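It is worth pausing here to work through a concrete case rather than discussing structure prediction in the abstract. The textbook approach is simple: state the sequence, then state the predicted structure, then interpret. We follow exactly that order.
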Amino acid sequence: MAQLLAGKSAIVTGGGSGIGKAIAIAFAAEGCRVAVAGRTASRLEDTAAAIRKAGGTCLSIVADVTQERPVADLFKKVKAEFGRLDLLVNNAGITEGGPIDEMSFETWRRVVATNLDGVFLCSREAFRIMKAQKGGRIINIGSISTAVPRPNASPYSATKNAVWGLTKSISIDGRPFGISCGQLNPGNVQVERFEPAFASNEVLLRPADIAQGAVYMASLPADADVLSMTVMPLKQKFVGRG
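Step two, the predicted structure:
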């Protein structure tokens, strides 16, 4: 059976663990050349090693998505290596929070810098490459917190709502150039930051479940787009009584 992403190239931010790692591995399994980016070299190399062991192509590039120059360098390296960029997955994100009256401005800024500034900086660089090559797709990893926030998570909820607005703006701005943009909203997923939930029997998906949604979005024809997709546990308390 033909691979869904054969001949394509992608950047996945936050690709060293969790959802980002699962998406990178799933893309590579479908024939995509992948670059994983993040701040921890050892984690990125673990992802790259897993992909290479399975016969795929993967670059691991240390880059802080909150910083303009490292982001620009990341995209230059990938363009030089792969010759083009078909897909960007903006996955890097953090979930710090707490009661708003006790939260430091430093915490707020840290979350905004990673979850929003990083999406803007990476999308801007991707847009420039995709505009020149007349096509490409950006997938932003959002959250069901866009619709139903958790308590004591104001910076996370605010940034994910802002990313939703940015997703729609990029979708509109990209149309004349064949650039699509959509948002994939995960429900509860079994990643490091949800470890305390295991003891409370909270319903959780696997990162690979989210990756399947990302592969679907990435494999659509160039003239089709999923503007928003939610992938959540069947029994998560989100719709109605849950």
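Step three, interpretation. The mean pLDDT is 93. The beta strands are 9-13, 33-38, 58-62, 87-90, 136-141, 179-186, 228-231.
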